[in-house]
Amino acid sequence: MRKHTSGRFADLHIHTNYSDSTDSPQHVVSLASECGLSAISITDHDTIDGLPEASLAGAEMGVEVIAGVELSSEYGKKDIHILGYFFDLNNSPLVNSLHGMQIARIDRMKKMVNKLSDLGVKDLIYEDVASRLRSDAVGRLHLAQLLVEKKAVPNLQAAFDQYLSEGGSAYFPKFKQTPFEAIKLIKDSGGIAVMAHPMITQRDELIPEMVRSGLDGLEAYYPNCSMEVANFYVGLAAKHGLIVTGGSDAHGKGKTSTYIGKAYVDYASVEEMKVRCGR
Ligand code: AMP
Ligand code: ZN
Ligand code: FE
Ligand code: FE
Fold this sequence. Notes:
Layout: E1 9-14, H1 25-34, E2 39-42, H2 51-61, E3 64-75, E4 78-85, H3 92-118, H4 126-130, H5 140-149, H6 156-164, H7 179-188, E5 192-195, H8 198-201, H9 207-212, E6 217-221, H10 227-240, E7 243-246, E8 265-266, H11 267-277
């Protein structure tokens, strides 16, 4: 059992169909309301376009919706995801940078589609991938879903194992942004920067330098992760003076291993974040 619960909980890592979940922002908010969450954050990959709809739905349904984003970055050929919260939605460097990331995603997806065609996958066209989402943040999960539908692979995991995982035969990197640059982007727009799912990323050795770049938190509570591992990251957060966060990383039907509310954090963490960024 976790100590010091306020009775109010927040799921701070949720995707929508503005990136690679199948759920609309409205549906996400209604599911959060049903499971009794006080607050959620929408953290789509490299886009904030779903936030206005989510905020409207949150106001209607009495769920606090915190502005969020999950920024892609790379270090030593390894994907590192930085979650941002409470940033200024109109911050020009952030908005411009997200736009650049989306252009890079489109370019990369076209390369992956071409590569798969060269590898013998038939009738694959970029537009069929792009039509699966409501922004330009097109990603590998969209392509994996299409490969399953076309019966080129038996399931999503096979799509990643065979073609799309880092180093796979149809894999292309997105763009060169380091986690330190991603953290700076969030901090310069007035936000809170958190290292997403450190237990999956397994780059703990970078945490001290991320802290020097302004990192504010660690996502210690994550689905399908043991209490022992979560407690390890709670300890690491304490050691570095970081806020502990948590969330489900729900992707609707895009990821059956998790769902909204599967991992969460006490609302006290949200209050700590607000104090830290002066909101
Ligand atoms: P992208 O941002 O296009 O590089 O895609 C990253 C997303 O693809 C992750 O957030 C997951 O949703 C999904 N993903 C990455 N690796 C896997 C995997 N091995 N199995 C299933 N989904 C994956
Ligand atoms: Zn995703
Ligand atoms: Fe992630
Ligand atoms: Fe995520």
